[in-house]
Amino acid sequence: MASQEETVSSPICVSNRIASTGLVGLEVGATSPVRDRAHQGGAHVRLDRGLRECEDAGEVPCFNSRIGAKTTLSAISELLELKTGAGLSLTEAQECLVRRINFIRRHYIYLHAAYIMLIALTGATALCYTEDNLAFVDALFAAMSAVCCCGLSTVEVAEWKAETHAFLHVMMLAGGAILTSAYQPLLRLWAVSKLCPMLEGDTKDSDGGNALGGNYLSKSMRLWYASALCVVTTLMYVILVHISLAFFLGMFNRSNLRVPDVVLLAVASFHGAIFTPMEPYVDDPAVVAVASVGCALGFTMFPVLLRCFLRMEWFFFSGVKRLFSSFRQTSTVRQRSLFPADNGEEAALLGCVDAPLKKGAKEGEFEGGVKGYSTWDRAFCDILKSKQPASMHTFLFDLRETVYLGVAWVVITVIAAAPFWFQQWSGDGLLAPYSEPYKVFLALCQAAIVRFGGASFLSCLDYSDSHIAITIMAMYVPPIPVPTYRVYKKWKSVPLAYVIRPFTSRKFWLFVAVFCILIFEEEWPDGPDAPYYDMITRTMFEVVSAFSGCGLSLPPRWSALSFSGTLGVFSKLVIVAVMFAGRHYTVDFSIDIGFNSLP
What's its membrane topology (predicted)? Predict the structure, then answer.
């Protein structure tokens, strides 16, 4: 036994706890010490406990096994690492499949970038084909702005054809942050479906490997249902919000909007990419409210509401299930009263009716033996009680982090609305013509929409320097934290990470210094074009707006386009690159299969 362990290379990144459980020296498909001790006291328990402790500590078991002429499999994926350490054999086709899955999950951000770039290039080509005299650079700018849900444009989009507008909104749907967030659980769903057959027992595998494989086969099925539920929940959220926005906008608008205009405005509001000017609708409270609420629900408020939406979905699912179960029980009693039979005949006659209920009760025995829960109920529990909810869904956080995001959004919105109340309330201010309740409403909507949308009901050209600084700050602060495992591993808390990191950044304090000078030394210049913004202010405003996906701009007064429309070709391409980079700010670098996230 000792000589066999010496001939096999030792693990390269396994913790001491894993090494102490007997995982050192295991080979794929070969005789291992675990096989000889399989039926001795608690070998399976020690093996699974060591792997579970490694997962809880955030460590990835990485084995370096030597299998003669076979290829060494080192850290291929979460699942393969576990199988390699457990002594399970893999065919060459399975090894190739696992390598492919591992490549996708480890390089997800590059695949996402290629997906966005492909849609942008295809959309730019289609825009050049549908619109005459449209340069490819301008078409690429509009397509990238639509896919990245920004709203900036270098040309007059309002003058385009109706077909072009519809195609532009289709690109918004394809590249929207909420809809693409379902791609990660969808890929996890595909990966788990492909990897589940590898976990089934095999006569060539060790007894410890078969036991561990069965354990992770059960976890794989739980992940499959949880991933499917995340995909369905995201799609339901997108559909319900779009229908609600279109319904309320069509019912209560005072601008006599047509049905196509209502649908396009609802889609553009949800994705925060409103290309048409919104200043003509400033007197329509329905348009102002729907555009602001749509922009909020389409991005910033989605992480805040996702956990609540899942609970509401679970409540609705439970109600439908109880109603269906009561209907089946009533139907069964009615059949028994109409067709009396002996016990044996009755069981044979009604077996098809009782079988699903018995099967559901058997599958639902979990959480301490509680019965009456189905597989989907367990999926809801796995998502809502997950130790790492971001591995289930990109925008899902625990309750404390969710409350933090909601409070931070409200605080930043109030701060961004303060300049309207102090500088634009009366006199020659932008809010002067309106009643006081509508002033508060309009200021809050305009301030809230800065965080996630490109609509401007009030002209930004009439803002003061301090107001511009506050607007840049509101656009610059990330609307949602990046849910990567680096944040959880280093800080163990999203609120802690996003409070400490700005205060330890030199760029943040430089901006605070500029912000203080603008507030305390502000002077309003005289003249018909007051206030005046220099090139540096306009450029900074445009770049931050493009990166954050806001879409606001400070164009010259003589131009009806955004500031980017007055720039050259190279500068336009730079703004395109900034929008592309900002779109991937909230995209995970890699995907976790999620075994260690199950409660």
Answer: Multi-pass membrane protein
